[in-house]
Amino acid sequence: MFWGLVKTLFAAKRPAVAVSDVGQLLAKAGAHRDKGQVLEAIEAFEAVLAIDPYNPVAMNDLAASLMILGREGEARLYFEKAALVDDTFVPAQVNYAASLSESYESARALEILQDARKLMPDAGYIDSAMARIKTSWGEAEEGRELFLSAWLKEFDDARFAENYLFNSCSVESVSSAHLYAEHAFWADTLPDIGLAPVRDGEERRSGRIRIGYLSPDMRQHSVRYFFRPLLEGHDRDRFEIYAYYESGAVDAQTELIRSRCDYFRHIPGLMDADFEKIVLDDDLDILVELAGHTSVNRTGYLRRRLARVQMTALGYPPTTGLSQIDYKVVDKHAAPEGTEGFYSERLLRLPNTFWCFNPLEPTPDPAPPPSVEKGYVTFGCYGNIGKVSVSMLASWREILERVPCSRLIIKSINFQDHSSREHFASRMVGAGIELARVDLVLPDQPAALFSSYAEIDLILDTFPFNGGTTSAFALWMGVPLVTLQGDILLSRMGSSMLREVGLQDLIADHLDDYVERAVALATDTQRLVDIRASMRTKLLASPLGNGQLYASQFEAACLVALESDSEVDFSDVEREVLPESVLVERAATVYRSGNYGAVTRIVRYCLNRYPKCLEAHVLLARVLEHQEGPQQGYDSLVAASQSMERPLDPQVALALARLQILLGLNVEAMNGIDSFVAPTEDAEKYALSLRVYQAVARARTAKPDTTVRSGEGFLSVLVHCDSDAKFAEISQGLKAILPPQSFELLRGRAVSRAVSYRQLLGQARSDLIVLLHEDVAILSPDFHRQAILAMERFDVVGPAGTRQLLSPLWFEVDEGAPSGALILPSGGGVDELCVYSSERYSEDIEALEGGLIVARRSAFAAVELDEGAEDVVCLAEVEWSFRASQAGLRLAAVPGLGVARRVFDMPRDDQWRRYAMTLAEKHARLRASKSRVVPQGVSIPLRSGLDAMLVLRTLYLTDQ
Question: What CATH superfamily is the domain 715-956?
């Protein structure tokens, strides 16, 4: 491929550079960057590139530093260079993709991200970047799934969680109740951060009511059209106004907002603890957050309760999910009686409208409907195309068909990107809409935005996420809208505004009704004229457009909130909870990421709602085992099992047996295993675990047969090792395990491992060759006999392998699992036996794991080692075994060899990426991959090498 060619050419021209010099310079540059010394960091990264011009790390980090200074053009150039130099360096690929996306080349960006995801499948930020592109194309459902994937991979990253929550608002299949459940799940699985020491009402300082507003949008932003009218209308004799502004951007609107506040706190990038101190010192009566889960926000931090009353308003239509936020500002139309179950907050219902829209600047007067002059109706929809659901498109098709010669104008910032426009156009065609009657255009510049509504006769609102700012703009310019209302504020913003201006008949309750009302209004030209002429007057006479009226109602509601009891019983309000299966699946996904703290929170959340959830109890026991030890996990599961039906569910019984084995309760484990009954349909699912635990318990309860039986044969063990100390350790280990006079140990060094092996093969005395990686150890005294027996049946063997090699990672499989068994370090100083299959010999193996290979000398003559291969873990051996199987040699995985792989001795990422990509390019069927965590299979800690031998004998009948 082209990028691979460019990489090769660059590598050939790369000057010889001392790695230590580059490393020191990179470390220096990184230190400047981490201290916020951007200019110094840029100078240091440039110094790296002066001596190593093709260093992708330096290019990438230089580009990131340039972005901070706003030098975007230069930054994109370096991102692109870094990506071309090394198309397996994921940070550069993702940053390059981001720069392409920002340059409106999203299709190319998505291709790069998809390749990067193959290299780093566990990186949440890649999924998040892909999700942003999908949503910009209007594919909200696919975007939501990717945002969820990103969140579960990085569960404690607030950005990923909030992207998922916000995007869920636009997905038609997500019900109002489910949307609440998602927000509640987020809130209730956050880490506990305690409560702030807020003074109670009796201790507050005297004076006016102190009300604070928290937002990142106190600038030229849609929120300002609703926030400034409130500020302008506030009664300053009764209220003291505090503003906490999160964004670094300052413009004329910021200054206008500042001028209407008693205290304006500009806090971009401020640490949470420092923010808390400022707010507590201000001694607020009411804190109103205006962002929800949008943009930059501190919504999650409001769990600390920083004011006597906390509210959410204006910026985020759904619930925040937080019970610590006391009120959500709504109105009786947007959140009618009976909808309390969709919100975690109490509903502070204003009598007219939940917000007020007024530009507070000169705007054009409403123009007559364009259909009067043109003779045909023009429908319009402005805003984010991610809000346009499948049902909406179907309804729009019917509306256009029933209103002859009518047209539809869709204006969206998304259309800056050609791919976004093309994908949305394809969606419209798929819905049966005639594109010749549709204009997909960019929104107008701010100065022309209001006058652009003169092109539109009426707005077709979106569902389930109604238009907000765009609908308010339309009404201000006299343009009516037809809306479909749902259950919650998110899908009742349109109906709330229409009721306030007396246009209730434009509110639909179902899709057919939506079509009928749109067609009726579109064909009533006189009514369109009348609405246009009177709308502005109605708005200015209403709290919807009159800041003084709105502020008066808002302030009255604030007084009610201050006087109310903050503790309210919601026990009689029905609220949806995510299904048990969803909670378990999410907990299991987060468990695989190693975030045990988050798993514990999810599992406890699940058990609080589903106390009998077996999977949650088992997962909690595993987490406790990791965090506190097997006794705590066992105690937890035993306590939970007391109320479970007998016989115990297989997953519970096996989990108990495993914990009993860990605690040395082998007789109890045997009893449990012997009485184990698995449902017929699940027998295969539990078979391997059952066999492993049974073998371990029996091996440790039976009288041990420690006789070491050697095979009839001599082995030549070849090791490439530059370290004298490590080689001495290998030699001592082999002498302790292998029978005397049964092997010779030959050492190679100074050259590559493959060259060492070739040279040592010329010195070896035996026809049976063992390639032993320096980071692999033989632990079972049975090794010699099992190797000799296996070589009577096969040409090449190792302790584990795969029947289908998909990538340089021997264990990466699409279906099933790897074969064999390995002994791996658990990270706690104890080796674990990890079993992947139960066969004594797993035949038809396509590639072995490579740490240890036993083969006949003839195999190396038939298939030569690649002497140009780099010494990257065991990839050269994996690749050789793959070529051996392709050449017709018989490969097998022999778990009874008892081999330990020190997987923590891993190479640098750049070495791995380079060689993994080389292998993928050499063998067309292989895909590149970066994740290098060996799968655990069914695992159990071992006590010693002798214990390993006894367990393996019992499991694989290796003593027969």
Answer: Spore Coat Polysaccharide Biosynthesis Protein SpsA; Chain A (3.90.550.10)
